[in-house]
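$ ./design --mode recover --in tokens.txt
reading tokens...
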């Protein structure tokens, strides 16, 4: 893993809505026409996006608080409405815990070092960006590595959707968490994480033409959510995450008909400092809660069965 600061510096912390330390390390957002956010500053959320980026990037770069205003009428429908706390319905195949009532978190609310990670794959000249993203959005759960579950809406990935996740963390334990669909259009979509997730941040999945071929990318901007996650990410978590997304893009490439999909991974440490003021994020840690829920499952299941049995007995007594 390469731990290097971004190549450029921004001129104002207000420009991207980050802390002074983060702003000093984050690359300058470039106006790239219709391309999705490509670097930390663009993905992080400029408050004055109209001055900092191109017309579409101005909307994409905006944080969830002012996304609708920055998006403008042309693509306002591509942004999710502002939410205070997440609401979810039960989904088959996942536990579905540690999501309802949680707030969304970006890198500003995270604890650990701030990382920007990109996973890129050349899809060739015959695959259009819209085709790649349509396939990715429609079959997103199918591309995940075995043992991990993504339970989204039946209609696919759309702005404002909340997906429930069960992630394999070893020892037969599944980490139950979720993601929020912040943005989705024909060429990109962005997922944002809630409190308790492994990291605070968002992931933008995009496709665009570079020269004469389409390039597909997953771009992550994140901080570990709390000290425990930071330790886990330092000792193997980052490598596991890289393997996860490389496998996901490889599976997408195979679905698109690529003979030998190759994924290029690039990791940049945007801010080496840890935000100790957010150490109390550990209260929401979904890994701890998932372990406790797994341990307690037999007991709660037995209690539920006994309650049903008592209710049945009471009904039988009442009828006699």
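writing sequence...
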């Amino acid at each position: 893993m390469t731990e290097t600061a971004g190549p450029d510096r921004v001129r104002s912390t207000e420009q991207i809505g980050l802390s002074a330390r983060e702003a000093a390390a984050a690359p300058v957002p470039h106006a790239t026409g219709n391309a999705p956010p490509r670097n930390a500053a663009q993905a992080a959320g400029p408050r004055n996006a109209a001055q900092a980026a191109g017309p579409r990037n101005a909307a994409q770069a905006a944080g969830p608080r002012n996304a609708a205003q920055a998006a403008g009428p042309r693509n306002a429908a591509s942004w999710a409405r502002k939410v205070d706390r997440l609401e979810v319905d039960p989904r088959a195949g996942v536990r579905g815990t540690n999501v309802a009532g949680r707030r969304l978190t970006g890198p500003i609310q995270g604890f650990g070092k701030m990382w920007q990670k990109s996973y890129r794959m050349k899809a060739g000249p015959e695959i259009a960006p819209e085709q790649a993203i349509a396939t990715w959005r429609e079959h997103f759960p199918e591309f995940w590595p075995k043992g991990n579950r993504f339970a989204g809406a039946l209609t696919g990935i759309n702005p404002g959707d909340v997906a429930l996740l069960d992630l394999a963390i070893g020892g037969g334990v599944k980490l139950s968490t979720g993601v929020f669909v912040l943005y989705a259009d024909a060429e990109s979509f962005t997922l944002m994480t809630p409190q308790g997730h492994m990291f605070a941040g968002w992931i933008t999945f995009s496709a665009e033409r570079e020269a004469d071929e389409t390039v597909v990318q997953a771009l992550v901007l994140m901080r570990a959510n709390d000290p425990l996650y930071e330790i886990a990410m330092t000792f193997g978590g980052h490598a596991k995450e890289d393997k996860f997304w490389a496998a996901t893009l490889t599976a997408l490439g195979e679905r698109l008909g690529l003979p030998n999909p190759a994924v290029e991974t690039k990791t940049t440490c945007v801010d080496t400092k840890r935000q100790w003021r957010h150490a109390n994020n550990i209260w929401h840690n979904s890994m701890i809660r998932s372990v406790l829920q797994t341990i307690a499952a037999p007991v709660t299941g037995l209690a539920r069965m006994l309650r049903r049995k008592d209710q049945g007995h009471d009904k039988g007594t009442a009828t006699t």
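exit 0
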